[in-house]
Amino acid sequence: MTQPPQGPSPGDRFWKPPQDQPPGPYGGGGWPPPYGGHYPGHPGSPWEYRDPAAGLAGRWARLGAALIDLILLAAVIGLVTFPFIDYGRVFRTPGGETGYLPTGQWVANFLSIVIAFLYYWLTTYKWGRTLGKQVLGIQVVRAADGGPVTQGQAAGRAAFFTVLGGLCGCIGFLDVAWILWDDRRQALHDKVAQTVVRKIEPGAPDPYAGR
């Protein structure tokens, strides 16, 4: 039996004999293009090496998409929470006193989290991408096979990112920063939901088509 080349062992998550690889949504067996191929220098080997970052969205693309989404959400949330803010107090008070009406801050914070959660959950489940991801040409898919995410995966990603991030800013910062050193450019909410963010290749089938 042909032995795999030196490097990751057969048990490594990025190594699978072709007969053990699940069929991909792009046709054929194994991890769907453009996620992987034969290990360099070993053409025709029965073992295939999948570069963990091949075909995935770049870090700057992910950060750019997140920035677009945050600007969009800030505008929507600002309009929704407008009735709970006393802007006269905001401009009159030099400091120390907030401009929120009584209990308004709690209501505004709650509405902010709910709006953000619904936005990320519904857009990710329906299309695999928020408006920011649409602009940058990237899409969320299942890490296991590149297929569309489930309701639970979309909700899990959104909850981790918005609810935990909204309650604790340090968690939200660490969540996003994780893509800077992760080999698959996953944020912590991707780890939780078992998703990755891929580039949308021109002409490639959309796994969310018909959903």
TrEMBL record:
GO CC terms: plasma membrane
Record's signal peptide: none
Annotated TM spans: 60-85, 106-122, 158-181
Membrane topology annotation: Multi-pass membrane protein
Disordered: annotated span: 1-37
Pfam families to which the protein is assigned, alphabetical: RDD
Cell compartment(s), UniProt: Cell membrane
Keyword match Membrane: yes
Stretches with biased composition (Pro residues): 19-35
Domain RDD: start-end pairs: 57-193
Keywords: Cell membrane, Membrane, Transmembrane, Transmembrane helix
Main location: membrane
This protein's name: RDD domain containing protein
Organism encoding this protein: Thermomonospora curvata (strain ATCC 19995 / DSM 43183 / JCM 3096 / KCTC 9072 / NBRC 15933 / NCIMB 10081 / Henssen B9)
